[in-house]
Amino acid sequence: MHEHELWFTALLNQYLAGPANALIGLAGQHAHDPAKPWSNYNAMLVLIIAFLLVLPWIVRAGLSLSKPGALQQIGELFINFIKTQAEEVIGHGSHKYIYWFATCFVFILFSNLLGVIPTFESPTMAPAVPLGIAVATFLYYNGVGIKAQGIVGHLKHLMGPVWWLAPFMFAIELISHFIRPVSLTIRLFANMLAGEQVTIAFMNLVPIGIPAALMGLHTFVSFLQAFIFTILTMAYVGMAVAHEDH
Q1: pTM of the entire structure?
Q2: Do residue 146 and residue 235 come from a single domain?
Q3: DSSP string covering 144-212
Q4: Under DSSP, is residue 1 helix (H, G, I), strand (E, B) or coil?
Q5: Per-10-residue mean pLDDT for the chain, 246 residues long?
Q6: Domain that holds residue 17
Q7: Within this chain, do residues 16 and 91 fall inside the same structural domain, yes or no?
Q8: What is the dihedral of CA 240, 187, 104, 41, to 10 degrees?
Q9: CA angle 211-74-123, nearest 5°?
């Protein structure tokens, strides 16, 4: 079953099919339909990335120490919130990782919220997008763990505190670590897809009133899923960088 092509996706396929096919070719792949290489979730990602690139410039233009604007105040509250959560989950030294946490939260949140706008949809409804974020998170927390502990110290986390159980614990922990990207992907993807499908179904059945309430619920779920993903990322980083005496 082919997905319904959104108007923005159709626009990209009409004017930017060539560059998209070239990029796909560089990866050694071929588009299923060279005339329509852009999928909906790729088109939505273009919007999200463009918005997130422009947003800092908008906020920066309104920066003021004496009279901070609404966006500046929201940004400061958000950064303080991330700092507080990271400090509670990780403890000392958490400030070194807040940029990754903030990036995950903002990217996931706006990707989720895009589906609330008519004629658009959340790119996180496509499994490839949550999987990409989950794999990047997996690489990040293992990377900072190796940086903080060294390769040997990082591997010791997988062996448990009892030496004679180390081989058994290593196998279990290794499986657990590789399951994490899968669980992060399924949680985000399933919740966003379910919310979108329920909203569409009720809009077809009851086009007035009920969809507005469901869109409010979709907004709440968007914030909740961004928060859960970020908190889990903090927990994974905290376990990766923790020293044995902690």
Answers
A1: 0.91
A2: yes
A3: HHHHHHHHHHHHHTTT-S-GGGHHHHHHHHHHHHHHHHHHHHHHHHHHHHHHHHHHHHHHHH--SSHHH
A4: coil
A5: 82 95 89 92 96 89 81 91 96 94 97 91 95 97 94 83 79 93 96 82 67 81 96 96 65
A6: 9-38
A7: no
A8: 140
A9: 45
